[in-house]
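Second opinion, please. Please look over this fold, written as C-alpha cells:

===
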Amino acid sequence: MHPSTLTMPKSLLPVAGRPFVDWQLERLSACGFRDVVMCIAFLGEQIEAHVKDGARYGVSVRWSHEGPKLLGTGGALRAALPLLEPTFLVTYGDSYLPFDYGGPLRMLDSHDDADGVMSVFKNDGKWDSSNVEVDANQPTGPTGPTGPMGPTGPMGSWVRRYEKGVTDPRLDHIDYGANAFRRSVIASMPEGEAFGLDRVQRDLAQRTRLRAYVAHERFYEVGSPSGLAELDRLLRTSASL
C-alpha cells in the first residue's frame, strides 16, 4: 500500500468513509468481544491516538508496543503475554472477516484435545495461495461441512498441514485470519525473538493440536489497493441495505 503507508498505518486507511480499524473493532464488538489487546509498531501511535480506550466501539482496548525491533506476529504476541487471557483470539490488523469471530475461541474452550483453532476457508487458490490441508475424513456438502455439529460448529475437523509457498492440491484451504490459542502456547516461545505466527501454527498442526473452524464466506483485506476497493464496495453495499 505504498506510498500511503509511509505516513499512515493500514489500520487507519479510509474504507467506506471511515478508518479501517473502526469497522474491525465494531465487528469484534458485535461478535461479543469486550477486551481487546492491540499490538502496534511502526506508526502505532497514530492508531492509539485514534482508538483511545475503545469505549466508543463497545470494547476496552489495551496496548502492547512492539518497540524499535520488529518482532513479527508471533514475537509481538510473546511481548504482549502479560495482557493475554488463558485462551484468546488473534486476528490480523489488515483483515476483515464476514463471519463469527467468536467461533474459533468457543471451539477451543470446549476442546481440551487442542491448543489452537485456525479458522480456514475452502479457497482452492482463488483469493490467494492456499496453504492449509484439513482433515480428509471430514465430509463436506455444498455449503461446507455436514458432519456432526456441536454448539461451536463442525466437529472432528483438524488442520493436518500448514505450508506457505508450496504447490500441492491437498492444500485447498487457506488461513482465514482468525486463530484461537492457549496462552501457554505463546508462553513457551522465546522472549524477544522475532518470529511469525506460522511457526506456532505449523508446530501445532504437526502435533495434531490445531483444530479447524470452517468459514463459508470469502475473506477481505486492506493490504492491497484491489483488496481495499473490494472491501469498500462490500461495506458501502451493506450499509445501504
